[in-house]
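[Meeting: bench + compute handoff]

Bench side (C.D.) handed over the final construct sequence. Compute side (W.E.) agreed to return the predicted structure before the next meeting so the bench team could plan truncations. Sequence as handed over:
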Amino acid sequence: MNTPKSIKRITIIAKILTFALFLALIRCIVEPMRLNTVSAQGISFEQAEPFLIASLVVAFSLLIITIFWFKQFAKLIIVFSVLTLAALVVIKVVYKIP
């Protein structure tokens, strides 16, 4: 049985994870620009591709999380956020991003 204190804790965790996903989205969007600035010859599409894929994954996840937020499914927000972060790690491993 969920007590009001545990419901509040679940809601806070959901908010923190949503905020973390927004930060991840910003990083995924800005990283190709940073790499382009640092690189002497610029970056190719192949170098920017993992960041674009990660941006799409996070943006789609945030859309789903927003729908969950309107329906007040805080536990699903937590689960979906963790799955999204795991997907970002998989993208990082697959594309061998340092």
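W.E. noted at the follow-up: The mean pLDDT is 94. C.D. will use this when planning the next construct.
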